[in-house]
């Protein structure tokens, strides 16, 4: 498949050619119902429901250790569930055979916490890892595509041949995002993408995510503790507590909730200051 065909296929998948995504697919691109996940006796989620809508940036919040990463990994098929259904693009993932599963995986991009790049590989080689796994392309085309991805995330061309230890924290995040975008995914999972970045770097990363959502029509599932990201970048927020999604909606929905964790989280000093300022303080 040539580059042009790949881009066309990706555009068609995202509905850039006049349709709202694949025909017949629901607007909820991820639908989780009555999910139970446990490790031995330790129940992490029980009766959890969640919809992620096409084209939105959904911010997923919750206290430390509540199960945000476990939910992400369960949706990705990396953690076994005890009960419940997970539908992605309208397909029940339990009903997919191995090859259908592989097709589905190509429609996901994942950026794990801390970037998780291969330290011995250059940025370009890191970006090419999923391409080599899923696409049969010539070395020249692989190089060309990797440079397109670098440009997409705002990295200079000379970052291509550097290894992760030669990059700043912000550049590592961008390189990891470029790798997550390697296969032109429709949904991107980001696990605390702004953690470890300084306020300006974090604001720039949020801007990049919003731009990619607009230009590529991406759906973004973003686990985050970053109040600024929740205020500035997310279309909706889902909050995890008591083994369930206890609230989902806009920021106003979160602020109106009586749940003690949400009251503490969004009513705390930092959140209150953020609300009152009405803008991102980190921009100085
Ligand atoms: N493979 C595993 N085996 C056993 N327990 C696990 C496993 N993976 C996660 N857990 C447990 O599941 C719980 C939820 O973990 P998870 O990493 O999803 O939390 P989190 O909400 O993402 O936390 P944080 O915000 O601190 O990253 C934790 O108690 C964790 O110890």
UniProtKB/TrEMBL annotation:
**Residue ranges of the TM segments:** none
Any matching Pfam family: ABC_tran
Does this UniProt record's set of keywords contain ATP-binding? yes
In this protein, which residues make up the domain named ABC transporter? 30-267
Stretches for region Disordered: 1-26
Q: What keywords would UniProt list here?
A: ATP-binding, Nucleotide-binding, Transport
Alphabetically, the GO molecular function entries are: ATP binding; ATP hydrolysis activity
Q: Which InterPro entries match?
A: AAA+_ATPase (IPR003593), ABC_transporter-like_ATP-bd (IPR003439), ABC_transporter-like_CS (IPR017871), P-loop_NTPase (IPR027417)
The protein's superkingdom reads: Bacteria
List the biased-composition ranges (Basic and acidic residues).
14-26
Query: Protein biosynthesis: present as a keyword of the record?
Result: no
Q: Which family does it belong to?
A: Belongs to the ABC transporter superfamily.
Protein name, per record:
ATP-binding cassette domain-containing protein
Organismal lineage: Bacteria, Pseudomonadati, Pseudomonadota, Alphaproteobacteria, Hyphomicrobiales
